[in-house]
Design brief:
Number of strands: 7
Number of helices: 10
Bound molecules: NADP nicotinamide-adenine-dinucleotide phosphate
CATH superfamily: NAD(P)-binding Rossmann-like Domain
Radius of gyration: 18 Å
Structural class: alpha/beta
Shape: globular
CATH topology: Rossmann fold
Number of domains: 1
CATH architecture: 3-Layer(aba) Sandwich
Helix content: 40-55%
Length: 263
Amino acid sequence: MNSDKTYCLITGASNGIGKALAEECTKRNMNLFLVALPESGLEELANHLSQVNDNDIKCLSIDLTLPDAPKKVFDYAKTNRLTVNKLINNAGVGGENNMMDQNPDDIDTMIQLNIRATTLLTYYFLKEMKGLPKAYILNVSSFGAFLPLPKKCVYAATKTYILFFSRSLHAELKGTNITVSSVYPSGVTTNSRVKETIQKSHFMARITTLQPSDVARVSVKGMLKGRRIITPGFATTLFYILGSLLPYGIVFRMVGRIFKKSS
Ligand SMILES: NC(=O)c1ccc[n+]([C@@H]2O[C@H](COP(=O)([O-])OP(=O)(O)OC[C@H]3O[C@@H](n4cnc5c(N)ncnc54)[C@H](OP(=O)(O)O)[C@@H]3O)[C@@H](O)[C@H]2O)c1
């Protein structure tokens, strides 16, 4: 077992990018505190990962959209004396549809999970991290944060919130023991909904698709280096640079064309 009793907390760790992050952190010999929805196979994943290198893994099944969930995650860590020195806010939901065709409950879930849970978990753990020699926060945003995306209005807006939240907090904590990173993947082959969307997409979106393990490797490396912005893969790096250099209208038209086909 890793005798350094600090833990890396990963939300949404049962599947997709979160699961790949848990695997990557296991390779790096970290103790893990994994959070996901109930009945998501989290315990099985933890059992499997703990056999890889005997790192200590704690699991908490909870719906992070519930009002008191972020506080309950923090309380669990306190009760079980888990020193969280790395917080990875990965849990998030997406979806694409015309705004008027969306289900209000889905919109609400997206906002509660992508924005509220990330913000409050960061708030609770920040205070604890302040007393540690070194601590890291990694927020999983999306390529959709850089530009307005038709048919992903709410999703893109939640991820833009994460972009500004993370960059502002990074600036606020500059020179302290805590670094704040955020990662901006393009399409990643995770759940069946995402895979189906990628399949129907413009070829540019298809050829720039990423594997969860690649995103996880680049993200954890960037987090440990204290990188402010992490852009895994060619597409995100290119659009991040183009978005910073070209007039907004031109980039918006380019991206609009690529994403028009997907829905
Ligand atoms: N896939 C992409 O193309 C892509 C691209 C850019 C950014 N991202 C971002 O990457 C992150 C992970 O996405 P993903 O594609 O890996 O998603 P995923 O495969 O659907 O996995 C999401 C994870 O979050 C958990 N989760 C969902 N709702 C939750 C809730 N209410 N409370 C607690 N846990 C919950 C899921 O649990 P269950 O297993 O029980 O569902 C699962 O472990 C998200 O923030 C997403 O926006 C994804």
